[in-house]
Predict the 3D structure of the following.
Amino acid sequence: MPQLVLASYISLTTTITTELITDDSSKIEVSILNSGDESAFSVQISPLLSSDFQVEPNLYDLGTLDPNEPEKINFDVTLSDGILPGSYPLVVLVDYADANGYPFSSVSPSSIIYKTQTLSKVTGVMEKLDLSKERTQTLTLTIRNLDQVQHNVDVKIYLPRELKIDKEESTVSIGPKEEKNINFEVSSFSALPGSSYIVLATLDYDDSNSHYSYTARNIINIVKEKPLEFPIWLPILSFIVLLIIFAYYLIRGKNEGISRNSNTERREEPAESAERNKE
C-alpha cells in the first residue's frame, strides 16, 4: 500500500524595529513568527549590541511559540556617555528547541541610529559556503574601502551556536580605494546536514566625529561528506594494466622455458661426440 510521510518543521521569522534615538534611551521591538507546523520550545531572545549600549532585559524567555501566533517583545536601550552620532550594528540571537529537545539558534541583523544616520563607505561581502560536518573550511570576508581616506575597521563575526570559528573579532587598516581579504576558519559544532545558517560580519569605524557601520551576510550550508569518486575509466585502465603485466610474465616464462631446453640440448652434444670418438 502507498504511504504518505509528513515531516513537521519549525520556521522562525524575526523582525526588528528600532527608533531614531535623540536622547539617552530608546526601545527595540522584536517580532517573531513561527510559520512552520510544529511548535518551537524554550524560545529565548537576546539582543546583541556594542559596548556603547546597555539593553534591558538582555535575555527574554518567551517559552513556547506555536505556529502562526506572532509574538512581540520590547527591550529598553540606554546609551553610554560620549557616544558618537551615527549608525551602530544590532544583532538578535534567537535560541529554541524542537519537540525532541534538540537545540537550534539563528542570528538576525538590524541597526540602531543615534541622532543621524550615516552611510558607511567601507563595505564587505562573503560568498556562500558549503560546510561538511567533518571538515573545517575557510570563510573569506572581502572588505572594500570606497573612501578617499584610510580607515581602521573593527570586524566582528556573529554565528549561530551550531557553528564555531577560530576568531570572532579582528581589526584591519584599509587604505583608500583598497580591497582586503580576511580569512576565518569555520567548522560545524552541532549543525545538522541539510540545514542552512546565516552568518553576519559587522564592519565599524569612526570618522569626523561620527560612527559608521556596515553588516555583511552569508549563508553556510551544511552538507554531507561526499565519498571519494573515482573516474569511470580507472577500473578499465587497471584491468588493462593487470592484463599487460600478466601477459608479460606469461611470455617471459615461456621464453625462459625455451632457453632452458636449448641449453640442455647443447650440453648433450659433446657427450654424443665423445661416444663417436670412442667408436
